[in-house]
Amino acid sequence: MNPNLKESEELASFGTYLSKIDSPEDLRKFSIEELPAIAQECRELVIDAVSKNGGHFGSSLGVAELSVALHYAYNTPKDQIIWDVGHQAYVHKILTGRKNFFYSNRKYGGVSGFPKRAESCYDAFGVGHASTSISAATGMAAARDLAHEDFKVVAVIGDGSMTGGMAFEGMNHLGHLKTDVTVILNDNRMSIDPNVGGLREYLTDITTNFTYNKIRRDIWQTLSKFDNEIGSTARRLVRGIEDGLKAALTPGSYFEALGFRYFGPIDGHDVGHLARVLTEIRGLPHPKLLHIVTVKGKGFAPAEANQSKWHAQSGAFDKVTGVSLKKADPNAAPKYQDVFGDAITKIAGKDQRVVGVTAAMPSGTSLKKLGEKYPERFFDVGIAEPHAVTFAAGMAVHGFKPVCAIYSTFLQRAYDQIIHDVALQKLNVIFAIDRAGLVGADGPTHHGVFDLSFLRMIPNMVVMAPMHEQELCDMLLTAVKYENGPVAVRYPRGNGLGMALQEFKQLPIGKGEVLRDGEEIAILGIGLMSNVALEAAALLEAQGVSPLVANMRFVKPIDTELLDAICARFDRIVTIEENTVIGGFGSAVCEYLQEKGHRNRVLTLGIPDRFIEHGSVADLHREIGLDAQGVVKRILEFAHSEDIVAM
Ligand SMILES: Cc1ncc(C[n+]2csc(CCOP(=O)(O)OP(=O)(O)O)c2C)c(N)n1
Ligand SMILES: CC(=O)[C@@H](O)[C@H](O)COP(=O)(O)O
Ligand SMILES: [Mg+2]
């Protein structure tokens, strides 16, 4: 266990069983009949902790029984359990020595909201993004076989995560290797929003056995209309092929065809039965898939009733009624995601070519606003970011203006698609990149701090970032009007500044603006960091330094005219971005200065070259010196230094 982990400030009172369980070894001392009570105590602890601190919710409640059964049936930590995404692993954390730390979940210095190898030897694989578990499990099994070791590997994957391409790639390879891995498919029919796609229908068919019964009934009804020789011959024929038909439609035949033995579907809340089934199948030496059916939010009525809303909670709530205890701020500014959702819907109202594409995040990106108004122009493709981008490329070939609304961190999945399928063909795809910058409690798996770097280097791309909600709207309009290739607009998680929105206007491509004039030093901001630059400038003023502040708006193409003018007047230039300092906005400025032979001194502020942990955004900004005070401190050091800090 990570020795630096902060103990929870709140002290939990554990139930009769949990007070005696500090590891899965303790769990395995209890009888199978006692498992339901243990699962219930875990569930109650999750409800209590999340009701105080927020966090992911419904998914962990849904797998309380599965988590107990897995640690009961398998010899963890030697046996490896890989949780897909990992947002459902709270009970696993509680059972694996972290119950005393659990109230620090997702807080600065506390337990991570996802399995993390650095945190515990029970966290077999680091996760946060969907659909990785089967590939990782297959790799572990291959390593085990090569090293002639003896342990079990289990991947737990939800029906939503199963829609991701990597899950299929993993199954295809695992079926080919024919080695011992158990895949547990947790089917609750939900992604964050309702799950979509053919796989969902297939799983539903399995659980209801609908297809088989329906086809059989339809055929017999049709044939019975022919009450003659033809009819009876046909019926005899059908009886003959019925076995084949049944085999084709038997539960799990799809997985069987990929090389798995399929078991299920079984009730994922019957913990005793689950533990028995797992113990039985654990000895089978080939790939197997156990299909369990669960209810997302199980055991907490409001979460069962509104599963999307209760996927995660951002703050405290009453643990009986579910009523939010977060004081609603009537003056809170709308979130950027909602400003985006409203703006793109408005723009789509005037331009029939605009279509919206989301990879399973209609609520998170608020693209569902467009879907509600123009359902025929809205596409939820499932957790399939690479497909989303190439799908958008296909629509763009035929004249549409697809807006791919994808979180920055998840867009990393679709990098080749952006280059090969969009930029290389100069297609008019718009990337609305949400959650850019530090996202807070989700931590390093979810911070969106690489996009400026990875997009900037792609030919034909236009890359911009708004400093406030009006600029977001203006940039969206600019992107839709642009006819010369792909455009990316990246904006952050959280609330805007609260400004009243004006009519959207088109911005000149590649032009920034000076926000305040000054002397001695120039601070160039991009996105939200232009606001921090203004704040820092006000603080610097009190210290006798009066900087110019520019909001550059575009990382690509960068405003070279403005840069030339600034270089001519200011010896020292500071850049600020909420993106890695490597290859991003600051680098773009340095590259241009170098190209032109400008010899100004440049200080590049941004995310340092390391992964940033979880915590509130304010804590994280403080830690890395990206809050106004931190920026001021570093600018003063720079202003008074004689050395060249970075070029
Ligand atoms: C690549 C990627 N895209 C999107 C997400 C956001 N996301 C997190 S959980 C989730 C739904 C997962 O559904 P499922 O696997 O069925 O688990 P459940 O929440 O139903 O337990 C989504 C879309 C992600 N984590 N990773
Ligand atoms: C696990 C996961 O990937 C999502 O649930 C994510 O945590 C959502 O983030 P937001 O809260 O920013 O929508
Ligand atoms: Mg699900």
Provide an overview of this structure:
The chain is of the alpha/beta class and 647 residues long. The chain folds into 4 domains: 18-207 and 263-312, 3-Layer(aba) Sandwich (Rossmann fold), CATH 3.40.50; 210-250, no CATH class; 336-490, 3-Layer(aba) Sandwich (Rossmann fold), CATH 3.40.50.970; 514-640, Rossmann fold, CATH 3.40.50.920. 41% of the residues lie in helices and 14% in strands. It has 25 helices and 19 strands. It has a 7-stranded mixed sheet, with helices on both faces. Strands 2-3-4-6-5 form a 5-stranded parallel sheet, sandwiched between helices. A 5-stranded mixed sheet has the order 14-16-15-18-19, sandwiched between helices. Helix 7 links the parallel strand 3 and strand 4 (182-187). Helix 14 packs parallel to helix 20. Bound molecules: thiamine diphosphate (TPP), 1-deoxy-D-xylulose-5-phosphate (DXP) and magnesium ion. The site of thiamine diphosphate (TPP) has 22 residues, from helix 3.
